[in-house]
Amino acid sequence: MSKRRVGGVARPNGLAIGRSKEDANLLEALKLYEAKNYKKSLKLVEASLKKNSQHTDSLALKALNLYCTDQKDEAASYVQRALAKGSVAGPSPIGLHILGIYMRNEKRYSEAANLFQSSLDNGSSNKQIYRDLATLYAQEHDYKNLLKARQAYWEEFMGYRANWTSLAIAHDLNGQQQEAANVLSKFEELAKGKLGEAELYEHNECLMYKNDLLYRAAGDDKTKLQRVMKHLDEIEKDVFDKYAWFERRAALFMKLDDKENASKVYRTLIKRNPDNFRYYRLLEVALEVQTDDDSRSILYSNLERFYTRAEPPKFIPLTFIKDEKKYAEKLANYLLPQIERGVPATFNNVKPLYRKDIERTARLAGEIVLQFLGKIDSKQSPLTFVWANYYLCQHFMFLKDYTKAKDYIDTALNHTPTMVELYILKARVLKHAGLLADAADTVNEGRKLDLQDRFINTKAVKYYLRADLVEKAVEVVSIFTKNDGSVNGVMDLHLMEAAWFVGEQAESYYRLYLSNRQKLKEAKMSEVGVEEEAQLERAHQIRLLSYETSKFGGLALKRWTAIAKFFKQFEDDQLDFHSYCMRKGVPRAYLEMYHWGKSIFALPMYVRATKGAAKLYFDLYDAQQKPVTNESEDAESASVKKGSKKAKKDAAALKKRTDEDKKTTLAFEKDTDILGEKLISTTTPLQDFHDKFYANYAKAATDATRDFVLEFEYQLRCGKLPLCVGALAKYADIHGTTNSTVGAMVLSVLDKIKLSNEIDELTKKLALKGLERQLSSLPLDQLESETFDWLEFFQQSYSVPTLEALLLLRRSASQIVSSATVKQLILENLGSQEPIVQDSVLKYELN
To answer: Tell me: the pLDDT tens digits for 71-123?
Structure first.
């Protein structure tokens, strides 16, 4: 392949004397492969292998051709053969490169990098491999080897600015900011006066990136910071991103303790963008008035006069005004104009104030808007009347007074039944009141007002899924999907990686799994007569519920696993950007993307899927730990043994139903486990959870973002008690040692120590030592006592138990404390919870 062709394989220019026929055929086959004539290339390779089945390079190229023609299983076998032959003759540099490309296609980046490196070490003349090698090291976050590869590639191809930028970034990632800046400076010297108009944007980006490097390298050294300021002034005329330029200038003035000039720059930034809250906060710091409320009031009064349409100078004073009269006046001036203009987000704009001081803000805001509503004529100012009721509905919903909230939204709807937003808000009220099916129907009424609106369509789908009306949700969402070749839009939504839908559907399937599992349990425990008809009916019911339970559990895992695949794809998609961003000359955007990519598995949607999958995998594990009983082995078995016609008919009907379910739930083409039967029948649920979800999450999450309760529960089931104590300690550092969840964790660990026979004594001793070190007041000497009341200790030693703490205690410490007493505490706690929470706990947690 020519040096310009990406991912090509090195070839000698001519055929050396004495080269074998197989090598000649290989070169021809490579030309065909590069032209994407995979079948012709494959034919040539096969001809070579018929004569010499040991030709490793031909084996490698055959594998690559098979991979490109979607014969991946067969390709893998040829790769194994090619690598196995390495102990005899081994692939040539070309063969190693081919195998590296195969491994890269398979997303086995570390192995691909090793093969590319081996190709170079064995004398490959294709120096383009260094670029491919660098992208792999970047993907694997191997900064040391990344720098070596970038350096080697730069030495071969110094004529491209992208290679200089790449080298600078490699130095930067290794913490060598000054060296990175020197590389960029060297190119600037060489290119001075030679840049065309098309290269000016890349030049501006590299200049700002260089200043960023100098800024970080300077630290707090004022002499160096002065040089950074000088450089910033020098590049002003060439920089297009003026926001970044001004922000850096202000930051430099602040570090140089020149707050007067910093404040001038922040005022310039506010003038350019008066809606950026951050600039106002930084201006306060520069003026040193952040703790002087009087000065801040004067500042924002002046700013409000200058920027009459800007939001920050109106809102920020509400966060610090203490005088109630002034606060009420300012709040009215902020709220009422928005209600008069019909701003739907009015309540959301002031919600931070409610959270900060709910007593004062809720009381005053309620009075202001109620008085305002009383003065409105619904006929003369119809829209103002509607939006005032809209605000009051949200106000009372925040206060959890759902009756009043419903009254106000009903008033608005009766007045103007054609406004879609009103149906959405009413649905929210009904949802919080626990009426999920009614909420879904309400949103659907709104959806019918505008059938072209994707937003309201999405809302209706979410509400149907939360009401566990999955079929209706799929029907509605399929209105806007491509349904070619499938009965609904489920496959298209997976193709588009619509994680919002897949995640909501997974959670709905999980709730249906829990409901059907409970029904199955009740059916097995129910008593029936000895009549054959009753026995057969019971067997039919058990068979049907067993299928439904397995189906919904399997589908929940399928959907959560699909989200994990989406995020893995996001991670893999970064590979192309390691070279693309260099060619486009956007080093700052590249580094932002690169650092974001390191935390991709700690993003909210992935964490949500991980927690959801954890519940089901933990359920499966806990069920496997319980002793097997023969209680209901049962009428179903008896009826089958008798060869009952009814049982055979049921089995046929179930088979037909399974086929229908597979059609409606198919998410990926060529899926061999559509209903997730393999996933739900796993014998290693903890290992599956770790491999599919937890490993990536644990690697990406930091102490600031990690869910230590999830980590605790996972390690507890793995029997790794010292790691449980570690998670407990981290949680206690954040929330305090008297937090009730800490208490629940402590009792869960003690429960395992005292009653588990599967955990070795050394592990138990280490865990006890950790607890003693972290929580010295624990009465560990009472662990062997049969009379000590640990639940009483929990209630007296820790803060008022939260619902989350009690549920954790019920799940994880079922023997050291009375399960029935914990259940009673949970029921008492539910009295203070929202109806939707009450309903969820009673249905899914306490059964």
So the answer is: 999 999 999 999 885 444 578 899 999 999 999 999 999 999 999 999 999 98
Q: Which of 202-211, 451-460, 514-523, 752-761 is the least confident region?
A: 752-761
140's CB contacts (< 8 A; 6+ apart) are: 109, 110, 113
| Residue whose token pair is 């026979």 | 757
Work out the burial of residue 319: count CB atoms within 10 Å of its CB; fewer than 13 is exposed, 13-18 middle, 19 or more buried. Answer: exposed
Average pLDDT over residues 825-846: 93
DSSP structural state of residue 311: S
Backbone angles phi, psi at 221, to 5 degrees: -75, 110
pLDDT reported for residue 4: 35
Tens of pLDDT, residues 295-311 = 999 999 999 999 999 99
Higher pLDDT, 540 or 677: 677
The pLDDT confidence band at residue 266, using thresholds 50, 70 and 90, is very high
Burial class (CB in 10 A: 0-12, 13-18, 19+), 608: middle
Q: What is the CA radius of gyration of the chain?
A: 33
**CA 805 and chain centroid, separation:** 25
Distance set, CA 189 to CA 182, 183, 192, 194, 430 (Å)? 11, 10, 5, 10, 67
Q: Which residue has the tokens 């491209």?
A: 160
What band does 19 get if pLDDT is binned at 50, 70 and 90?
Answer: low
Torsion of CA 199, 201, 207, 213, to 10 degrees: -120
Which position has the token pair 């409970």?
A: 518
What is d(CA 32, CA 41) in angstroms, rounded to the nearest whole number?
A: 5
Half-sphere exposure of 589 (CA within 13 A, CB side): 14
In the chain, where are the structural domains located? Answer: 707-845
DSSP state of 672: S
- HEC string for 466-532: HCCCHHHHHHHHHHHCCCCCCCCCHHHHHHCCCHHHHHHHHHHHHHHHHHHHHHHHHHHHCCCCCCH
Average pLDDT, the chain: 92
1-13 burial string, b = 16+ CB within 10 Å, else e? beeeeeebbbbee
The reported pLDDT for the residue numbered 89 is: 57
Residues 454-474 have a mean pLDDT of 97
In total, the chain counts a number of residues equal to 847
- pLDDT at residue 17 greater than cutoff 50: no
DSSP state of 780: G
Please say if the pLDDT value at position 650 is more than 80: no
Q: What is the 3-state secondary structure (H, E, C) of 794-841?
A: HHHHCCCCCHHHHHHHHHHCCCCCCHHHHHHHHHHHHCCCCHHHHHHH
Q: Looking at residue 318, what DSSP letter applies?
A: G
Could you tell me the two tokens for 569?
């794809």
How far apart are alpha carbons 180 and 165 in whole angstroms? 9
Look at the alpha carbons of 444, 449, 451, 456 in this order and tell me if their dihedral is positive or negative. negative
Helix (H, G, I), strand (E, B) or coil at 777: coil
Please give the Cα distance from 838 to 843 (Å, whole number).
8
CA distance 668 to 69: 19
Nearest to 422 by CA among 377, 392, 452, 462: 392
What is the mean predicted confidence (pLDDT) over 385-403? 97
385, 388, 393, 395 alpha-carbon torsion, rounded to 10°: -170
Q: Using alpha carbons, select from 84, 136, 47, 2 the residue that is nearest to residue 576.
A: 136
690 Cβ contact partners less than 8 Å away, ≥ 6 residues apart: 714
